[in-house]
Design goal:
The chain is an alpha/beta fold. The chain has two domains: 230 residues, Type I PLP-dependent aspartate aminotransferase-like (Major domain) (Aspartate Aminotransferase, domain 2, 3-Layer(aba) Sandwich), CATH 3.40.640.10; 118 residues, Aspartate Aminotransferase, domain 1 (Alpha-Beta Complex), CATH 3.90.1150. The strands form three sheets. Strands 1-9-8-5-4-2-3-14 form an eight-stranded mixed beta sheet, with helices on both faces. Strand 2, helix 4 and strand 3 form a beta-alpha-beta unit. The protein is globular. The mean pLDDT is 96. The chain binds pyridoxal-5'-phosphate. Pyridoxal-5'-phosphate (PLP) binds next to helix 3 and helix 4.
Length: 360
Amino acid sequence: MEYLARCIEDNWVSSAGPFVARLEAEMAECAGCQHAVAFVNGTAALHLALVAAGVRPGMHVIVPDFTFAATANAVYHAGARPLFADVAPDTWTLSPEALEQALAGARDQGLKIGAVISVHVMGQPADMEPLSYTCAKAGVPLIEDAAGAIGAIYKDKPVGCFGDIAMFSFNGNKTVTAGGGGMIVTNREDWAARVRHLSTQARAAAAYQYDEVGFNYRMTNLNAAVGLAQLERLPEMLATKKAHAFAYDRAVTGRVDMQPMSRVNWAVSSCWLYGLRTNSTAAAGSLVKHLDGCGIEARPFWKTLSNQKAYAAAARMPAPYAAGLSGRVVTIPSGSGLTESEREAVIKALAGWRGKVVND
Ligand SMILES: Cc1ncc(COP(=O)(O)O)c(C=O)c1O
Protein backbone atom coordinates (compact mmCIF):
# COMPACT_ATOMS: atom_id res chain seq x y z
CA MET A 1 0.00 0.00 0.00
CA GLU A 2 2.81 2.33 0.96
CA TYR A 3 4.75 1.77 -2.28
CA LEU A 4 1.66 2.02 -4.45
CA ALA A 5 0.65 5.27 -2.76
CA ARG A 6 4.12 6.62 -3.46
CA CYS A 7 3.69 5.87 -7.19
CA ILE A 8 0.43 7.84 -7.25
CA GLU A 9 1.75 10.73 -5.17
CA ASP A 10 4.89 11.09 -7.30
CA ASN A 11 2.99 10.37 -10.56
CA TRP A 12 5.42 7.61 -11.58
CA VAL A 13 2.79 5.14 -12.71
CA SER A 14 3.96 4.02 -16.12
CA SER A 15 6.87 2.15 -17.65
CA ALA A 16 9.63 4.06 -15.90
CA GLY A 17 10.17 4.99 -12.30
CA PRO A 18 12.23 4.33 -9.21
CA PHE A 19 10.53 1.03 -8.27
CA VAL A 20 11.38 -0.50 -11.66
CA ALA A 21 15.06 0.31 -11.12
CA ARG A 22 14.95 -0.93 -7.51
CA LEU A 23 13.25 -4.20 -8.46
CA GLU A 24 15.87 -4.74 -11.17
CA ALA A 25 18.71 -4.16 -8.71
CA GLU A 26 17.15 -6.46 -6.09
CA MET A 27 16.51 -9.22 -8.64
CA ALA A 28 20.07 -9.05 -9.96
CA GLU A 29 21.27 -9.58 -6.41
CA CYS A 30 18.69 -12.28 -5.69
CA ALA A 31 19.85 -14.28 -8.72
CA GLY A 32 23.55 -13.52 -8.25
CA CYS A 33 23.78 -11.82 -11.68
CA GLN A 34 25.22 -8.50 -12.74
CA HIS A 35 22.30 -7.29 -14.83
CA ALA A 36 18.51 -7.40 -14.63
CA VAL A 37 15.84 -5.98 -16.95
CA ALA A 38 12.17 -5.79 -15.94
CA PHE A 39 9.41 -6.91 -18.32
CA VAL A 40 5.66 -6.74 -18.62
CA ASN A 41 5.49 -10.54 -18.14
CA GLY A 42 7.71 -13.61 -18.18
CA THR A 43 6.69 -14.69 -21.69
CA ALA A 44 7.85 -11.37 -23.16
CA ALA A 45 11.10 -11.67 -21.18
CA LEU A 46 11.70 -15.17 -22.54
CA HIS A 47 10.98 -13.98 -26.09
CA LEU A 48 13.69 -11.33 -25.91
CA ALA A 49 16.08 -13.65 -24.04
CA LEU A 50 15.86 -15.90 -27.10
CA VAL A 51 16.44 -12.98 -29.46
CA ALA A 52 19.45 -11.82 -27.41
CA ALA A 53 20.80 -15.37 -27.50
CA GLY A 54 20.78 -15.18 -31.30
CA VAL A 55 17.70 -17.31 -32.04
CA ARG A 56 16.43 -16.49 -35.52
CA PRO A 57 13.67 -17.74 -37.86
CA GLY A 58 14.58 -21.13 -39.27
CA MET A 59 16.29 -22.30 -36.09
CA HIS A 60 15.10 -24.81 -33.48
CA VAL A 61 15.28 -24.45 -29.71
CA ILE A 62 15.47 -27.48 -27.43
CA VAL A 63 12.64 -27.28 -24.89
CA PRO A 64 11.53 -29.86 -22.30
CA ASP A 65 8.26 -31.52 -23.29
CA PHE A 66 6.94 -31.10 -19.73
CA THR A 67 6.54 -27.34 -19.34
CA PHE A 68 4.05 -24.50 -19.47
CA ALA A 69 2.94 -23.37 -22.95
CA ALA A 70 4.74 -20.03 -22.62
CA THR A 71 8.16 -21.72 -22.85
CA ALA A 72 7.36 -23.07 -26.31
CA ASN A 73 5.30 -20.03 -27.36
CA ALA A 74 8.25 -17.70 -26.77
CA VAL A 75 10.26 -19.84 -29.21
CA TYR A 76 7.59 -19.25 -31.89
CA HIS A 77 7.51 -15.52 -31.04
CA ALA A 78 11.24 -15.47 -31.87
CA GLY A 79 10.40 -17.08 -35.25
CA ALA A 80 11.92 -20.46 -34.36
CA ARG A 81 10.43 -23.92 -33.63
CA PRO A 82 10.78 -26.10 -30.53
CA LEU A 83 12.54 -29.44 -30.51
CA PHE A 84 10.89 -31.17 -27.56
CA ALA A 85 13.09 -33.36 -25.35
CA ASP A 86 12.48 -35.59 -22.34
CA VAL A 87 12.74 -34.76 -18.64
CA ALA A 88 14.57 -36.60 -15.86
CA PRO A 89 12.53 -38.83 -13.53
CA ASP A 90 14.10 -37.39 -10.35
CA THR A 91 13.51 -33.71 -11.06
CA TRP A 92 10.87 -33.58 -13.84
CA THR A 93 13.24 -31.06 -15.53
CA LEU A 94 15.23 -31.29 -18.80
CA SER A 95 17.33 -34.44 -18.64
CA PRO A 96 21.06 -34.01 -19.43
CA GLU A 97 21.00 -37.33 -21.35
CA ALA A 98 17.91 -36.25 -23.29
CA LEU A 99 19.68 -32.99 -24.15
CA GLU A 100 22.63 -34.90 -25.63
CA GLN A 101 20.24 -37.11 -27.59
CA ALA A 102 18.32 -34.07 -28.84
CA LEU A 103 21.52 -32.38 -30.03
CA ALA A 104 22.54 -35.59 -31.83
CA GLY A 105 19.00 -35.94 -33.25
CA ALA A 106 19.13 -32.35 -34.49
CA ARG A 107 22.45 -33.03 -36.23
CA ASP A 108 20.95 -36.12 -37.92
CA GLN A 109 17.89 -34.19 -39.10
CA GLY A 110 19.92 -31.14 -40.18
CA LEU A 111 18.22 -28.83 -37.66
CA LYS A 112 20.10 -25.72 -36.56
CA ILE A 113 19.80 -25.38 -32.77
CA GLY A 114 19.74 -21.72 -31.70
CA ALA A 115 19.41 -22.26 -27.93
CA VAL A 116 18.38 -24.64 -25.17
CA ILE A 117 15.76 -23.71 -22.57
CA SER A 118 15.97 -25.50 -19.25
CA VAL A 119 12.88 -25.10 -17.03
CA HIS A 120 13.05 -25.29 -13.23
CA VAL A 121 9.80 -27.18 -12.62
CA MET A 122 7.57 -26.10 -9.70
CA GLY A 123 10.64 -24.55 -8.05
CA GLN A 124 12.84 -27.65 -8.47
CA PRO A 125 16.14 -26.71 -10.18
CA ALA A 126 17.25 -28.58 -13.26
CA ASP A 127 20.69 -30.22 -13.13
CA MET A 128 22.43 -27.16 -14.58
CA GLU A 129 26.07 -28.34 -14.47
CA PRO A 130 25.81 -31.14 -17.06
CA LEU A 131 23.33 -29.10 -19.09
CA SER A 132 25.69 -26.12 -19.30
CA TYR A 133 28.68 -28.38 -20.00
CA THR A 134 26.84 -29.96 -22.94
CA CYS A 135 25.63 -26.59 -24.24
CA ALA A 136 29.11 -25.06 -24.00
CA LYS A 137 30.59 -28.06 -25.84
CA ALA A 138 27.99 -27.70 -28.59
CA GLY A 139 28.39 -23.89 -28.72
CA VAL A 140 24.69 -23.36 -27.98
CA PRO A 141 23.39 -20.73 -25.49
CA LEU A 142 21.57 -22.04 -22.43
CA ILE A 143 18.52 -20.13 -21.17
CA GLU A 144 17.00 -20.75 -17.74
CA ASP A 145 13.22 -20.56 -17.56
CA ALA A 146 13.06 -19.86 -13.83
CA ALA A 147 9.50 -18.51 -14.10
CA GLY A 148 8.35 -20.16 -10.87
CA ALA A 149 11.68 -20.81 -9.19
CA ILE A 150 12.61 -17.60 -7.39
CA GLY A 151 14.56 -18.56 -4.27
CA ALA A 152 15.55 -22.04 -5.50
CA ILE A 153 19.16 -23.08 -4.94
CA TYR A 154 21.35 -25.24 -7.17
CA LYS A 155 24.64 -26.34 -5.60
CA ASP A 156 24.78 -23.40 -3.15
CA LYS A 157 23.91 -20.71 -5.68
CA PRO A 158 20.52 -19.22 -6.61
CA VAL A 159 18.98 -20.28 -9.91
CA GLY A 160 19.23 -17.67 -12.63
CA CYS A 161 23.02 -17.44 -12.76
CA PHE A 162 23.80 -20.81 -14.39
CA GLY A 163 22.66 -20.26 -17.96
CA ASP A 164 23.76 -17.48 -20.31
CA ILE A 165 20.53 -15.67 -19.50
CA ALA A 166 17.49 -16.41 -17.30
CA MET A 167 13.91 -15.33 -16.86
CA PHE A 168 11.61 -15.05 -13.83
CA SER A 169 7.84 -14.48 -13.80
CA PHE A 170 5.89 -12.30 -11.37
CA ASN A 171 2.51 -13.59 -12.51
CA GLY A 172 -0.26 -13.65 -9.89
CA ASN A 173 0.26 -17.35 -9.13
CA LYS A 174 4.00 -17.09 -8.44
CA THR A 175 5.74 -16.95 -5.04
CA VAL A 176 6.57 -13.29 -5.68
CA THR A 177 3.96 -11.48 -7.76
CA ALA A 178 3.89 -7.99 -9.20
CA GLY A 179 0.32 -8.41 -10.43
CA GLY A 180 2.06 -9.36 -13.66
CA GLY A 181 5.65 -9.04 -14.73
CA GLY A 182 8.86 -10.73 -15.70
CA MET A 183 12.59 -10.24 -15.28
CA ILE A 184 15.64 -11.11 -17.31
CA VAL A 185 18.89 -11.64 -15.43
CA THR A 186 22.27 -12.20 -17.06
CA ASN A 187 25.97 -11.59 -16.63
CA ARG A 188 26.25 -10.59 -20.29
CA GLU A 189 26.28 -6.80 -20.40
CA ASP A 190 25.71 -6.69 -24.17
CA TRP A 191 22.69 -9.02 -23.93
CA ALA A 192 21.18 -6.99 -21.07
CA ALA A 193 21.60 -3.78 -23.07
CA ARG A 194 20.05 -5.40 -26.14
CA VAL A 195 16.95 -6.71 -24.36
CA ARG A 196 16.47 -3.36 -22.61
CA HIS A 197 16.70 -1.59 -25.97
CA LEU A 198 14.34 -3.98 -27.76
CA SER A 199 11.82 -3.90 -24.89
CA THR A 200 11.46 -0.10 -25.18
CA GLN A 201 10.56 0.07 -28.91
CA ALA A 202 14.27 0.04 -29.87
CA ARG A 203 14.36 3.79 -29.43
CA ALA A 204 17.61 5.36 -30.56
CA ALA A 205 19.16 8.18 -28.56
CA ALA A 206 17.25 10.88 -30.46
CA ALA A 207 13.48 11.34 -29.97
CA TYR A 208 11.21 9.25 -32.24
CA GLN A 209 14.11 7.55 -33.97
CA TYR A 210 14.41 3.78 -34.03
CA ASP A 211 17.25 1.56 -35.16
CA GLU A 212 15.27 -1.72 -35.37
CA VAL A 213 11.79 -3.12 -34.89
CA GLY A 214 11.19 -3.12 -31.14
CA PHE A 215 8.56 -4.11 -28.59
CA ASN A 216 6.61 -2.40 -25.81
CA TYR A 217 7.56 -4.92 -23.15
CA ARG A 218 8.51 -2.77 -20.14
CA MET A 219 7.09 -3.26 -16.66
CA THR A 220 5.19 -0.35 -15.10
CA ASN A 221 6.30 1.35 -11.90
CA LEU A 222 2.96 0.33 -10.30
CA ASN A 223 3.71 -3.35 -10.94
CA ALA A 224 7.29 -2.93 -9.77
CA ALA A 225 6.04 -1.36 -6.52
CA VAL A 226 3.98 -4.49 -5.81
CA GLY A 227 6.85 -6.77 -6.88
CA LEU A 228 9.37 -5.02 -4.66
CA ALA A 229 7.10 -5.13 -1.61
CA GLN A 230 6.57 -8.84 -2.26
CA LEU A 231 10.28 -9.50 -2.77
CA GLU A 232 11.00 -8.01 0.65
CA ARG A 233 8.88 -10.84 2.10
CA LEU A 234 10.58 -13.59 0.05
CA PRO A 235 12.46 -15.32 2.92
CA GLU A 236 9.28 -15.53 5.00
CA MET A 237 7.19 -16.80 2.04
CA LEU A 238 9.81 -19.39 1.07
CA ALA A 239 9.96 -20.69 4.64
CA THR A 240 6.17 -21.12 4.74
CA LYS A 241 6.08 -22.87 1.37
CA LYS A 242 8.88 -25.25 2.38
CA ALA A 243 7.05 -26.08 5.62
CA HIS A 244 3.95 -26.94 3.55
CA ALA A 245 6.00 -29.08 1.16
CA PHE A 246 7.78 -31.03 3.89
CA ALA A 247 4.49 -31.66 5.73
CA TYR A 248 2.94 -33.00 2.49
CA ASP A 249 6.08 -35.10 1.78
CA ARG A 250 5.77 -36.73 5.21
CA ALA A 251 2.03 -37.28 4.77
CA VAL A 252 2.31 -39.20 1.48
CA THR A 253 5.61 -41.05 1.98
CA GLY A 254 5.12 -44.77 1.45
CA ARG A 255 1.88 -44.47 -0.48
CA VAL A 256 1.66 -46.54 -3.65
CA ASP A 257 -1.16 -44.54 -5.26
CA MET A 258 0.68 -41.20 -5.27
CA GLN A 259 4.26 -39.98 -5.11
CA PRO A 260 5.67 -36.56 -4.31
CA MET A 261 8.36 -35.14 -6.58
CA SER A 262 11.64 -36.66 -5.44
CA ARG A 263 14.08 -34.34 -3.66
CA VAL A 264 17.70 -34.35 -4.81
CA ASN A 265 20.63 -33.64 -2.50
CA TRP A 266 22.29 -31.19 -4.91
CA ALA A 267 19.46 -28.64 -4.99
CA VAL A 268 16.95 -26.94 -2.75
CA SER A 269 13.54 -26.47 -4.32
CA SER A 270 11.76 -23.19 -3.70
CA CYS A 271 8.61 -25.33 -3.40
CA TRP A 272 6.62 -22.91 -5.55
CA LEU A 273 3.92 -25.48 -6.28
CA TYR A 274 3.33 -28.82 -4.63
CA GLY A 275 2.53 -31.63 -7.04
CA LEU A 276 1.65 -35.27 -6.46
CA ARG A 277 2.13 -37.80 -9.23
CA THR A 278 -0.78 -40.23 -9.42
CA ASN A 279 -0.73 -43.48 -11.38
CA SER A 280 -3.04 -42.45 -14.23
CA THR A 281 -4.90 -39.52 -15.71
CA ALA A 282 -8.12 -41.10 -14.40
CA ALA A 283 -6.62 -41.24 -10.89
CA ALA A 284 -5.57 -37.59 -11.18
CA GLY A 285 -9.16 -36.68 -12.12
CA SER A 286 -10.51 -38.78 -9.25
CA LEU A 287 -8.17 -37.10 -6.74
CA VAL A 288 -9.13 -33.60 -7.93
CA LYS A 289 -12.82 -34.56 -7.63
CA HIS A 290 -12.35 -36.01 -4.17
CA LEU A 291 -10.52 -32.91 -2.92
CA ASP A 292 -13.14 -30.67 -4.50
CA GLY A 293 -15.77 -32.60 -2.53
CA CYS A 294 -13.78 -31.77 0.62
CA GLY A 295 -13.84 -28.07 -0.30
CA ILE A 296 -10.18 -28.08 -1.44
CA GLU A 297 -9.11 -26.69 -4.80
CA ALA A 298 -6.65 -28.97 -6.58
CA ARG A 299 -5.77 -28.99 -10.26
CA PRO A 300 -4.35 -31.38 -12.80
CA PHE A 301 -0.93 -29.99 -13.79
CA TRP A 302 0.82 -29.70 -17.19
CA LYS A 303 0.22 -31.98 -20.12
CA THR A 304 3.10 -32.63 -22.50
CA LEU A 305 3.19 -30.08 -25.30
CA SER A 306 4.50 -32.24 -28.17
CA ASN A 307 1.17 -34.02 -28.70
CA GLN A 308 -0.97 -30.87 -28.62
CA LYS A 309 -2.53 -29.28 -31.68
CA ALA A 310 -0.70 -25.95 -31.27
CA TYR A 311 2.69 -27.66 -31.51
CA ALA A 312 1.89 -30.30 -34.15
CA ALA A 313 4.57 -28.91 -36.47
CA ALA A 314 7.30 -28.89 -33.79
CA ALA A 315 10.19 -31.35 -33.85
CA ARG A 316 10.35 -33.91 -31.06
CA MET A 317 12.45 -36.63 -29.50
CA PRO A 318 10.97 -39.61 -27.65
CA ALA A 319 9.92 -38.40 -24.18
CA PRO A 320 8.69 -41.37 -22.11
CA TYR A 321 9.27 -39.74 -18.70
CA ALA A 322 7.43 -36.58 -19.71
CA ALA A 323 4.59 -38.75 -21.05
CA GLY A 324 4.44 -40.52 -17.68
CA LEU A 325 3.87 -37.20 -15.92
CA SER A 326 1.47 -35.72 -18.45
CA GLY A 327 -1.95 -35.17 -16.86
CA ARG A 328 -1.06 -37.38 -13.88
CA VAL A 329 0.34 -34.71 -11.58
CA VAL A 330 -2.13 -32.96 -9.28
CA THR A 331 -1.19 -29.69 -7.60
CA ILE A 332 -2.58 -29.10 -4.13
CA PRO A 333 -2.77 -25.89 -2.05
CA SER A 334 0.74 -24.61 -1.33
CA GLY A 335 0.42 -20.82 -1.22
CA SER A 336 2.26 -18.81 1.40
CA GLY A 337 -1.14 -17.67 2.72
CA LEU A 338 -2.20 -21.27 3.52
CA THR A 339 -2.52 -21.75 7.29
CA GLU A 340 -1.32 -24.80 9.20
CA SER A 341 -4.88 -25.84 9.98
CA GLU A 342 -5.85 -25.54 6.30
CA ARG A 343 -2.81 -27.66 5.44
CA GLU A 344 -3.90 -30.26 7.99
CA ALA A 345 -7.33 -30.32 6.33
CA VAL A 346 -5.65 -31.04 2.96
CA ILE A 347 -3.58 -33.84 4.55
CA LYS A 348 -6.70 -35.34 6.10
CA ALA A 349 -8.51 -35.20 2.76
CA LEU A 350 -5.54 -36.90 1.02
CA ALA A 351 -5.72 -39.68 3.61
CA GLY A 352 -9.38 -40.18 2.69
CA TRP A 353 -8.61 -40.99 -0.97
CA ARG A 354 -7.36 -44.24 -2.44
CA GLY A 355 -6.18 -44.57 -6.02
CA LYS A 356 -5.72 -47.67 -8.15
CA VAL A 357 -2.17 -48.96 -7.91
CA VAL A 358 -1.78 -50.01 -11.54
CA ASN A 359 -0.31 -47.48 -14.03
CA ASP A 360 -2.46 -46.82 -17.13
C1 LIG B 1 7.52 -22.50 -16.82
C2 LIG B 1 6.92 -21.17 -17.18
N1 LIG B 1 7.46 -20.46 -18.17
C3 LIG B 1 6.98 -19.27 -18.53
C4 LIG B 1 5.90 -18.70 -17.88
C5 LIG B 1 5.36 -17.40 -18.36
O1 LIG B 1 5.35 -16.36 -17.43
P1 LIG B 1 4.25 -15.21 -17.51
O2 LIG B 1 2.94 -15.80 -17.08
O3 LIG B 1 4.74 -14.17 -16.55
O4 LIG B 1 4.22 -14.70 -18.90
C6 LIG B 1 5.30 -19.40 -16.83
C7 LIG B 1 4.17 -18.79 -16.12
O5 LIG B 1 3.34 -19.27 -15.51
C8 LIG B 1 5.81 -20.68 -16.47
O6 LIG B 1 5.27 -21.41 -15.48
